[in-house]
Design a protein that fits this description.
This protein has 216 residues and is mainly beta. It contains three helices and 15 strands. The strands form three sheets. Strands 1, 3, 7, 8, 9, 12 and 13 form a seven-stranded mixed sheet that branches. The chain has a four-stranded mixed sheet with strand order 2-6-5-4, covered by helices on one side. β10 and β11 form a beta hairpin. The chain is globular. The two termini are 19 Å apart.
Length: 216
């Protein structure tokens, strides 16, 4: 049985985000061995924000036109959202930029996170981290911006710029989360760059960090 680990981006990423890092309440969860394995032909991948046609066409293109991006999906507090590789993300109204990522025991993770303050990140900034399981990588983080991002992208090492999914709570919470399922891509080599854009393509916030070495 493999063990999924959600790894905070590291001290460098936290410092660049201007706070103590992303508000992740769950770490070290172990999913069932059969849960949505990437190397099976029947994998069920749920990426919020993709249209059916984009998903069918495998669209994760660099530099997608900002005006075509739908912005974050609005979700209810505590609602589990599948973000790939069997993981679920939930946003909490308690605390500051408070969210969970869990492969199982999602309800328990939410209950534990209710009592946490969450980690505040600097205004108009973004945080980042990643979960690694063999060649499967799941990137997650939070944004806190005056303007709701139209899109958030990642550039991993020398690779192309790819679109992340985004979530936020109803109303004007001033923050939200993002995620990118890089199943099968292998542990990142080189700098991970995360950028939030407004509808005109202007940069709202960005972050660059070096992934922790394998085994850490």
């Amino acid at each position: 049985m493999k063990t999924k680990r959600l790894v905070i981006a590291g001290v460098v990423a936290m410092a660049l985000a201007g706070g103590t890092g992303t508000a992740l309440a769950v770490d070290g969860l172990t999913p069932p061995a059969e849960a949505d394995a990437q190397d099976t032909g029947s994998r069920r991948e749920a990426v919020v924000g993709e249209t059916a046609s984009e998903k069918a066409a495998g669209v994760r293109l660099p530099g997608r036109v900002a005006a075509a991006a739908p912005g974050p999906r609005v979700v209810r507090p505590y609602a589990p959202v599948e973000i790939g590789q069997g993981a679920k993300m939930g946003l909490l109204p308690e605390g500051r930029q408070n969210y969970v990522v869990a492969w199982d025991d999602y309800e328990e993770a939410v209950e534990q996170a209710r009592s946490l303050a969450g980690d505040s990140i600097r205004p108009n900034s973004i945080s980042g981290g990643m979960g690694v399981d063999g060649d499967d990588v799941l990137f997650t983080g939070a944004f806190r911006t005056d303007t709701v991002p139209a899109r958030i992208t990642l550039r991993i090492g020398a690779g192309p710029e790819v679109e992340a999914g985004m979530l936020r709570l109803p109303g004007t919470p001033g923050w939200g989360t993002y995620y990118y399922d890089a199943a099968g891509a292998g542990r990142p080599q080189g700098t991970v760059e995360v950028t939030a854009y407004d509808a005109d393509g202007s940069v709202l916030a960005d972050l660059a960090y070096e992934p922790s070495p394998a085994g850490r």
